[in-house]
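Please decode residue identities from the backbone states below.
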């Protein structure tokens, strides 16, 4: 059962076990940001909280973020994420979004920032008025999945460097895993951690994660599940 938590009069977080998603409203429109891992009725939940016209955006298409997508005919998503989404039998028409696009909910402009790495089409969403960054899985203090063919550590590092350009424009990070909220300083820390992994300076532990041999790098601010290295 999803747990609905009101953050303020126009923002909710919906806790779905290991993952969370968000509902943002403006004066004219409402936007659901992801649909969770088990919450097939995410649309119904959103419609119970607002009467405004409702759209859906996905921060990325990993299965733990798209459980309730089937109820939507259209989905804002990076086009770079669509192959992954269709591979998982994702339905609905993709309305492509990219860096610099702004979705205005009515007095609440949301700016799209491309942050590839965790997946090719991962995005973050800057809520400029409320000084909040919705980070998907890319900025969070849980464990970030960075192994397998769709992940790219070098892109992740570049994305963290890119996000640093938005320093000072937000005070809180709303992530989909880990603690809620986390602070903007986590971006720089994740960038450093990912560089240490890339440069072979981080000490990892070989583990088996759901049948995959991976290297687990645990930092005091977050973890990474990286490619298996012997
Ligand atoms: Zn996730």
């Amino acid at each position: 059962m999803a747990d609905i938590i009101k953050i303020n009069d126009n923002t909710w977080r919906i806790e779905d076990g290991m993952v969370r998603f968000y509902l943002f409203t403006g004066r004219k429109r409402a936007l659901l940001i992801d649909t969770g891992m088990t919450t097939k009725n995410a649309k119904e939940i959103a419609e119970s909280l607002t009467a405004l016209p409702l759209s859906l955006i996905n921060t990325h298409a990993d299965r733990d973020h798209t459980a309730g997508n089937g109820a939507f005919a259209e989905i804002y998503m990076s086009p770079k994420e669509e192959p992954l989404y269709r591979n998982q039998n994702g339905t609905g028409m993709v309305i492509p979004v990219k860096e610099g696009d702004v979705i205005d909910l009515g007095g609440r402009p949301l700016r799209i920032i491309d942050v590839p790495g965790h997946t090719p089409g991962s995005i973050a969403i800057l809520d400029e008025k409320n000084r909040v960054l919705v980070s998907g899985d890319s900025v969070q203090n849980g464990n970030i999945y960075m192994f397998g063919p769709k992940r790219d550590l070098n892109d992740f590092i570049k994305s963290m460097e890119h996000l640093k350009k938005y320093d000072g424009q937000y005070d809180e990070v709303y992530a989909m895993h880990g603690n809620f909220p986390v602070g903007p300083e986590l971006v720089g820390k994740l960038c450093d951690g990912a560089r240490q992994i890339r440069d072979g300076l981080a000490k990892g532990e070989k583990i088996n994660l759901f049948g995959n041999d991976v290297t687990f790098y645990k930092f005091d601010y977050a973890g990474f599940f990286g490619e298996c290295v012997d």
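Observation: The chain is about 15% helix and 35% strand.
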